[in-house]
Request: fold
Amino acid sequence: MDAPPATLPPAAPYDCGTMLLHWLHAVLILGLIGLGLYMAGLPKGEARSAAIGLHKSFGVLAFALVAVRLAWRLRHPPPADARLTAAEHRLAAAGHRLLYALLVLVPLAGYLSSSFTRYPMRVFGVVLPKAGREDEALNAFFNATHGLLAWTLAALIAAHLGAVALHALQGKPVLARMLPGRQARG
Ligand code: HEM
Ligand code: HEM
Reply:
């Protein structure tokens, strides 16, 4: 009898729009986490203010992108992957839902935190409305919430990468589903 193949054939890939949005969002989020980490270590001054300004602009962009992504997702559900067990499907779906929830909540908490400072909400030079006026206690609360949620998101992204690597080790590579130029097979 033939031995089973070490690697099962790939399942149908995601559509091009989902792939484009996934990779744009991934670069933006990893960049924002890196910038957040860098900012936190800077002393008060011009460099810190400039870094925070840049972080706010790209953070609001990430919020707009998750709205586009969720609207796209409603019309483009993920293609089924017959290689995964029902339990693996459930776990992946739960992980992805949690990722989406944090991708909404992290920038929202950042926006709320910045709303309760005396600084204007400038996004790429354009002043946006704020959700409130200067309030130290609310600023501190949403700032701490933003930090906590952002680090939870970073941990979940690490688990996400771990799951992609684990599937590859199990001979069921899922990365090809998120890469352009792959043919639907299996
Ligand atoms: C998904 C988007 C975002 C991610 C992943 C993100 C990530 C982070 C991270 C990792 C930190 C450092 C936390 C720490 O010090 O422990 C941070 C700080 C901060 N973020 Fe965000 N952020 C995002 C969106 C936003 C938005 C939309 C705003 C405001 C409009 C914002 C405003 C801030 C501010 C004011 C700080 C604190 C700066 C300081 O006082 O050191 N962030 N962010
Ligand atoms: C940078 C390395 C990354 C790799 C290699 C990667 C890989 C993948 C792969 C292969 C899938 C499809 C899994 C499947 O259903 O078969 C996926 C889905 C997903 N990824 Fe990533 N990812 C990365 C980073 C990120 C980041 C930083 C985020 C956060 C913005 C993210 C959010 C998501 C979400 C929400 C889905 C679910 C898509 C859906 O079904 O709607 N990924 N990722």
Remarks:
- The mean pLDDT is 93.
- The helical segments are 16-40, 46-75, 86-115, 136-169.
